[in-house]
Design brief:
Shape: globular
Protein name: Alkyl hydroperoxide reductase AhpD
Radius of gyration: 15 Å
Structural class: mainly alpha
InterPro entries: AhpD-like, AhpD_core, CMD-like
GO molecular function: peroxiredoxin activity
CATH class: Mainly Alpha
Order of helices and strands: HHHHHHHH
Oligomer: single chain
Strand content: under 5%
Number of strands: 0
Distance between the termini: 21 Å
Helix content: 55-70%
CATH architecture: Up-down Bundle
Amino acid sequence: MEPRLDLFASPTAGKALKRFANAAMALERSTLPKTLRELVQLRVGQINGCGLCVDAHSKEAAAAGETPVRINLVAVWRESTVFTEPERAALALAEEGTRLGDGRPGVAEQTWAAAREHYDDDQLGTLVCLIAMINAATRMNVMVHNPGSSYEPGTFAAVGGE
């Protein structure tokens, strides 16, 4: 699969993507563990069918120390025992925040309460922004057919983020 368009080569899109990358870098300084941020982004990439995001975030998670078993089980986190309660709360928030267009009323009170139980306001704000931003990234990548397979860990950091 060949990309339909190089967004970075577009003068307007390129400028917007640089600002997007700068916003993503702020999230990197969060107190949320990098492995959790990568697992959340991986799950959103899986839901939205973004090959580039699944490739990138599985490799970034591994580079951050995440185990192959946990990376492989993200897609079925509800049916596995390798995730902590805080991680499960973040993954549930990511799923509900991603599937807003599936006829759901948004994030359920129970899901929000579980996330609130495990994360402070700054961490919750980070999760909300992270989920929104990875959803935007997955949608851009899917629209232009950016394929997965050749991502090298650290690439996002080298360009200032996602």
